[in-house]
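debug: dumping io for the single-chain case to check the tokenizer round-trip. Nothing else runs in this session.
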Amino acid sequence: MKKLAKLSVAVAVVSVVAGCDKLDDERIPPAAVRIAFNTVHEWDLYGTPGALDFRYFIREERVPANYPWTSLTYTGFGGILLVGDINGEPRAYDLACPVECKYNVRVAVDMESNTARCPVCHSEYDVFTNYGHPLSGPAADDGYGLRVYRVAPGNQGEYLVVQP
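debug: decoded output
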């Protein structure tokens, strides 16, 4: 009976350990992130006020062109993908593909599949329902997720996109 109990415990431990998939969402190098939306009007204009909305922010390329860029605006390693998830909650990810790890190889949203896709390795990521987790391609094989940033209210009521 003791052998059966020990075997059961061993099988349970192995099952738990083997069943845990580890997601690496820190493969992209850390870089400064700060995007401020100082008024509700700015949020409505440049943010993601609704479900399945998305915007790209790339400081070096001034994308979007009419955003009020300042010296305090930083957009991470490859840029920022700001989305409104399926509930309309804002989420933010680094645009750089974690498989390629290059600042200029960026994922792009595919509205037909509601995913973000890398043009080089063709990995797909769930950005609207599952926090940037990989769905297919080398990213899914290796467990590489998009780097996640925090979207939160600022000190004076504005929205801020910042590092976690």
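debug: round-trip ok. The chain has one domain: 31-162.
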